[in-house]
Amino acid sequence: MLFDTHVHLNDEAFRDDLEEVILRAKENDVSKMAVVGFNKETIERALELADKYDFIYLILGWHPTDAIDFTDQDLEWLRKLTKHPKMVALGEMGLDYHWDTSPKEVQFEVFRKQIRLAKEVNLPIVIHNREATEDVVRILREEHAEEVGGIMHCFGETVEVMEECLALNFYISFGGTVTFKKCEIT
């Protein structure tokens, strides 16, 4: 039995072949999946998938590249969604300095609000970090995210940073980026 803890079956790319993709996963012993909703549209689609398929679970949050669009109403909506019986984590949240779509200060605020919500409802968190490692780790420490822990998604940092994250009660997830020529994991 395999549990894929981070899928984006709610992406438009799967509109035409979703059933085939799910069938291939099941044929390869993937018996459970957690679909990640990271903004209003993808959260709504994730909810549809979790309601339709008994083996699909939810990770819902607000991605840092969409932080500029996050409102207090969205935070309340997320708070209500944490009660969904298939909700397993909040995320993917964090900081992204690669894409210039949300100012850093806005990303900081949205990240902190989601960590606080996770602690309030006692759910682990899934962290997105792109070119923002120092600030991500600092905020995790300042917000005492170790109280809920979670996963450092698509990790590509140094062993020292990995050890810091492990000490903060986070699992390490290695994604496809570790195969990129530019990846300098040391």
Automatic annotation (TrEMBL):
The keyword Chloroplast does not apply. Signal peptide: none annotated. SUPFAM superfamilies: Metallo-dependent hydrolases. Keywords: Hydrolase, Metal-binding. GO terms for molecular function: DNA nuclease activity; hydrolase activity, acting on ester bonds; metal ion binding. CDD domains: TatD_DNAse (cd01310). GO terms for cellular component: cytosol. It comes from the Bacteria. NCBIfam families: YchF/TatD family DNA exonuclease. This is Uncharacterized protein. It comes from Listeria aquatica FSL S10-1188.
